[in-house]
Structures are given as structure tokens and as C-alpha cells.
Please model this.
Amino acid sequence: MGKLLDAMRSRFLTKDLPKTAKGQFNALMRKEDGNTARVAERLGVSRRTVQRYVSGERSIAKTKPEILDRLQQEVSKDHQPRVTARAVKEAQRKGMTIETRAAFGFSSAAGSTDDPRMRRLTEDVPDHLIPEIFEAMRNGDEDRLNELLGQGLAEEYFRTSGPDAENLDVEFSDIDYVELDFR
Model:
């Protein structure tokens, strides 16, 4: 996982996701009440393959990387739904802040306007992005989370009034550290 997902999960969830593929598989089996057909559908494999994982004929840890990625995504979707819902509600009520040290670069319709450089920023996350940010966390989508937080930082810090700033795209990369919290 990436730094953004780790920061979100460490702040807003009370328990970590299972670390091993076997632990993740068992969590998914529990969520689906042992129904191998539903687990197979969620993982994109055959029911017989899931039955082999359950019986021990085949090791889930030694399966294809794309199946392991899908397993991690499916488990993260179901992980602590009430805790996540409570965090979303509180973030929408109080607001959310991001503190980071990362490289920020700019590009606009006319091309590159500035090379990326390290900056330390503490800014509020725009309220309209909060539900999408938590959805990206739930889906385990680091790229989408990066895009949303970069967009939030661009809105709050980099875009000033004026015609040039409205079209400014901010690239959020080379994250040294990131912390998220309620305002």
C-alpha cells in the first residue's frame, strides 16, 4: 500500500487490515458467510479455485499477483464499514486537514509552468471532496486518493483568483510524509 492509504487507514480506522493473503482470504470468507460462489465472483476466479483455497489444496499466498491485488481491494471495501461511516460523517461535520511534505509541480494548458519542488503544507481539505476521499480509501485506490488530495491542495493553496490559476493543474508526488486529521 501507499503512503496516502496508510495515512488514511491509520487515522480513521481502529483495526488494520489483515496483513497476510491467508488472513485476507479468511476475512473475505467470513464476510460472505463461507459462500464460495460469492467469494469466487468477487475475486474473479472459479468456485472450484476458492474451494481449493479453503481445503488447502492450493495456497492463496502463491496465487497470481492480480488475484492478490483483487483480494486486498475486496477486503478493504468491507473493512470496518461502521467505523468508516462514522469517520466520514465526522469529517463532513468538522472538516478535514492534510499536512504533508511532498513535491508539487504545475502544468497548465500552455505546458509546464514550474518544476516540482518539495513543499511543506498544512491545508484544509475542501468539504466536497471528503466523500470521494473516503470512497477511494474504501476501494484501496491510491492513485485516486492522490488525485483527490492533490486537487484539494490545489484548490486551497495553489489556485488564487485570476484567469491563469483556474486552469492550473497541480502534481502531488514524492510524498515524504502525510498526516490527515479532523479540523
